[in-house]
Amino acid sequence: MKCLVILGDGMADRPIPQLQNKTPLEYAYKPNMDFLASHGCVGCAKTIPDGMTPGSDTANLAVMGYDPKKYYSGRSPLEAVSMGISLENDDVTFRCNLVTVSDEENLEDATMIDYSSDEITTPESTELINFLAKEFNSDTCALYPGISYRHCFVLKHALTGTVLTPPHDILEKPVRSHLPSGRYGDLLLDIMKRSRVLLEDHPVNKDRIARGLRPANCCWFWGEGVKPKLDSFYSLYHAKGGVISAVDLIKGIGKCAGLEVAEVPGATGTLASNYKGKASAAIDLFSKGCDMVYVHMEAPDEYGHRGEYENKVKAIEVIDKDVVGPILKELRKSGEDFSVLLMPDHPTPIEIRTHCSDKVPFVLYRSGRRSSLSTPRYTESLAETTGLYVPDASILMSALMGKTELYR
Fold first, then answer.
1. Is the CA virtual torsion 335, 339, 345, 348 positive or negative?
2. HSE-up of 174 (CA within 13 Å, CB side)?
3. Residue 322, by phi and psi: left (phi above 0), alpha (psi -120 to 50) or beta?
4. In a 10 Å sphere around its CB, with 0-12 CB exposed, 13-18 middle and 19+ buried, how is residue 8 labelled?
5. Is the backbone of residue 183 left (phi > 0), alpha (psi -120 to 50) or beta?
6. Which of 3.30.1330.10, 3.40.720.10, 3.30.1070.10, 3.50.50.60 is the CATH number of 2-72+230-400?
């Protein structure tokens, strides 16, 4: 049996006045997702364990079948693994965003304008990070370029204990009370302040401003962690798996789990992503013998953070048309039994523009078998009506793989 996970990052939401008080899932035209809901087992799941911060790191670990309470060691080390950074057990890693802050003379007086610097391109950001690395890298620390605005900073032979805030949590807010503190707070804050001076007149930023784009005018550190230790997916489920994503976090989880990580040219995590390429990559992984393929789409989360409800709807519709539809078509053509798990990792509501720990709607579909817990469409409110609640989302992978009986 082939097993498919369709993960729309941050796809769940709350009713939005501009969408006739509907959520993006309720408003979007998504016939393939709705087909799965109208035939599959629909319910709600808790992806963020009590006491843990709602994030794509903990939530995707759970959906991939790893209890975050047991396996989570921080976000940035998972991204570091994807980037090919070799880590020692006593290294501490940090996500480094290239952000846009307002231009007050002192960083303490600035406001967080954009956590992504207008979704800066990878070639531009790589040039900027390499430029900063010449200034900041030493025997004890190093900056590494990643994708778009997402980069990594490593402290060698260090300890955890620095207090940091994700930049997407403080959009349009003063940064003063969210600057680094704790163990390495002074060190990271000094780098952030110096980065503003170094980046201000860089040719990449001058060119972006000339084109009407926001400059990447500051480093911002968050997501502290240490080297992850995940059991292999095969050892847990006795199955071969693959993962497809545009972001290093999900690729890193995949690599740590021993999954085959497919690289898709043009996969960006936005509406401009190569969605058809992701569908083709999933079909290819199945043809190569993968039993489980995890397809992650970042765009709904990005537009939730940006407060762009129309683009969040468009992202859901594109995922349905260019990813869900083509993969289902090929799975049906194969004649082999298959199962699908459709869900978000967490909500990213437009009204708060950040993650929350609300339960999320899921569909578990099995080919040739109709569930008594189906709903006419795939939406948050309809998922509530079935009464099926999974308090630990990490069991959903086991259910998908047929190891745990949930389908009814």
1. positive
2. 6
3. alpha
4. buried
5. alpha
6. 3.40.720.10
d(CA 211, CA 271): 20
d(CA 191, CA 132): 9
Which residues fall within 8 angstroms of residue 67, CB to CB, at 6 or more apart? Answer: 49, 61, 392, 394
The ranges assigned to domains in the chain are 2-72+230-400, 82-225
Q: Cα 293 vs. chain centroid, distance in angstroms?
A: 16
Q: Which of 250, 332, 349 is nearest to 286 (CA)?
A: 332
Per-residue pLDDT of the chain (408 residues; tens, 9 = 90+): 999 999 999 999 999 999 999 999 999 999 999 999 999 999 999 999 999 999 999 999 999 999 999 999 988 999 999 999 999 999 999 999 999 999 999 999 999 999 999 999 999 999 999 999 999 999 999 999 999 999 999 999 999 999 999 999 999 999 999 999 999 999 999 999 999 999 999 999 999 999 999 999 999 999 999 998 999 999 999 999 999 999 999 999 999 999 999 999 999 889 999 999 999 999 999 999 999 999 999 999 999 999 999 999 999 999 999 999 999 999 999 999 999 999 999 999 999 999 999 999 999 999 989 999 999 999 999 999 999 999 999 999 999 999 998 877
Strand partners, 101: 112
| 166 phi and psi angles, rounded to 5 deg | -60, 135
Q: Is the pTM of this model over 0.85?
A: yes
Q: How many degrees, rounded to 5, is the angle at CA 203 between CA 201 and CA 208?
A: 95
In whole angstroms, give the CA distance from residue 38 to residue 260: 31
Give me the sign of the Cα torsion angle 105, 108, 109, 115.
Answer: positive
**Are residues 6 and 342 in contact, defined by beta-carbon separation less than 8 angstroms?**
yes
Dist. CA 359–CA 356, nearest whole Å = 9
| Cα(311)–Cα(175) distance, integer angstroms | 27
Residues 6+ apart with CB under 8 A from 179: 107, 108, 185, 189, 192
